[in-house]
Amino acid sequence: MSAPQPLPRGTLLLIPVPLGPTPPAAVLPAPVCEQARQLRHFIAENAKSARAFLKSLEIPVPLQEIQIQELNEHTRANALEGLLQPLRQGFDVGLVSEAGCPGVADPGADLIRLAQQEGITVVPLIGPSSLLLALMGSGLCGQRFAFHGYLPAKEDERGKRLKALEQESRRQNQTQMFIETPYRNTQMLNSLLQHLAPSTLLCLASSLTLPQQRLRTLSVAQWRKEEDPVAKEPTVFLFLSV
């Protein structure tokens, strides 16, 4: 008697999510929306916000029939194995972020790495990325750039880090990019204006793809003359030493 054949593996689909309360059709290609509508298994940072996204997609079955597993900072490393189980059983699974692209400044990267190690097919789908959009609109160097996630929260450590990044930017002609929790945007901007050279070019890119989008590049010296230039909204900070 021949041995039973293993089930075909499912595909892990990386599904971008709008960067704010925007209809998915406004920022996601129609084929991406259609692929997401066909799925019955999802992995998300927060199940509640994932359901809101799926509802906006007009999933053709009741949301109660959709399986959503959570992957966030509280997920233990040994629990990642369990998240792959539907894929091992042959089901396609959608990985969604809270906003933007899964796996970029996102806990989904750990799951994607594990799926790659198991030989599971991973397919990134097209959608909005605040980092790429900010770089595109900044006018800063798009040939060499580095994303640093979140910088230190303590002012003295953050100042030292900014000076080191500015030196690297000058040496490599490299755009430096990072993000901050929106309620700390003002503190971050104050640190930038205090520690960077007046001639350094600084871009603030807030609420990209949303009606209140703001994207502007000025020198540090020029920003010091502006009043309330940054809102408590999702913002990408970019600078280039010139």
Automatic annotation (TrEMBL):
InterPro entries hit by this protein: 4pyrrol_Methylase_sf (IPR035996), 4pyrrole_Mease_sub1 (IPR014777), 4pyrrole_Mease_sub2 (IPR014776), rRNA_ssu_MeTfrase_I (IPR008189)
Family matches, as SUPFAM superfamilies: Tetrapyrrole methylase
Record's signal peptide: none
Name of the protein in question: 16S rRNA (Cytidine1402-2'-O)-methyltransferase
